[in-house]
Amino acid sequence: MREIERIKESVAKGKIPAVYLWYGEDRFLIQEALKVLKSFYFMTDPSGSGIEVVSAKELSPATIVERANTMSFFANRLVVVEEVTYFQDGQTADLEPFLDYFSNPNPSTCLLFMAESVHKGRKFYKMLAKGGEILEFCAPKRPQEWIAWVQLELKARGKSMDTQAAYQFIEWVGHHTGVLSQELDKLVIFTEGRQTITTDDIKTISTRTIEASVFDLLDAVANRSSAKALGTLHEVLLEEHPLKVLTLLVRQVRLLLGCNALRRRGGNVVEAPSLLGISPFEAQKIWQQSVKLSTEQLSKALSECLKTDLALKTSGGDPGLLLEMMIIRFCG
Questions:
Q1: Architecture field, domain 2-136
Q2: Which of 23, 91, 161, 211 is placed for a possible disulfide with 197 were both Cys, Cβ 3.0 to 4.6 Å?
Q3: Domain boundaries in the chain?
Q4: According to its UniProt record, which protein family does this protein belong to (predicted)?
């Protein structure tokens, strides 16, 4: 999020680093940033002939350096090196050409390396850090960061929504920046003619994730509302295979059991993400839900899930009916 703003600032000033390293798990944000960077080169050459994309798996460092040193008719060039493997254990490429280049890069070329992860102790990283710029692209982690990201995306689209609607949107759609961006685009079209997006708009047009539905289903179970739980189950089964629904229910019950175990030993929600392997945002939601369900209830629910799984795979019974019976037993 902040990384893209830095790139926009560099483009606006016309000051692009000669050497870049971008890495991180959020591929959507990296691709959005690349669009911003490319816009600088399209301004002087709409054909994009000064932009070249190569693979580190296919070209040697010496060849890539040669490409970076090539002069362009339009003066500015962008050489994007994808699939960077120079940080992996056992890599055998001769990196000396890069080390020489970093000390005296071609000022008319931006040499951009893109990697999923890096090793900050490697010589390649240290040398690049001295003469280039390094950006890490991470998806938001805490709830407040997700809300801030959504609000920033809305502002760029000339729209707005209040905090409650933003929370509803994230819970409804999930925690993937690419999916959220697509759903925001749909909402912008749907609300053409007005600025504010409401929770009703979100429920009408946005695609709800199965994870959100499973969460609501277990909320209904915690409140002993079999009618609501069955209603939610029927909605989910219209879109998803019964085995997938059951798999997600098992996952959710196990996470709830994990939260209860953590609470019993004096832990807190801050520890949940690393111990349970989930995002901080999801941890907050599951931690709050786990208060409503006892360990005994969850243990019985997990046992029922396993029995239903066996029945789905061996009995030949109607999958929807088997899941309905399981949910009724949950609520009872």
A1: 3-Layer(aba) Sandwich (3.40)
A2: 161
A3: 2-136, 143-205, 210-331
A4: Belongs to the DNA polymerase HolA subunit family.
Q: Looking at domain 143-205, does it have CATH number 3.40.980.20?
A: no
CA distances from 24 to 133, 196, 305 (A): 14, 33, 36
CATH annotation of 210-331: 1.20.272.10
pLDDT tens digits, one per residue of 137-194 = 988 877 888 899 899 899 989 999 999 899 889 888 888 888 899 999 999 999 999 9
pTM over 0.85: no
DSSP 196: B
Q: Where are the beta strands (DSSP E) in the chain?
A: 19-23, 51-55, 77-82, 109-115, 133-136
Tokens of 144: 């407040």
Radius of gyration of the chain (CA): 25
Model confidence pLDDT, tens digit, residues 17-67: 999 999 988 888 899 999 999 999 998 888 888 899 999 999 999 999 999
Please state the φ and ψ torsions of residue 281, each to the nearest 5 degrees. Answer: -65, -45
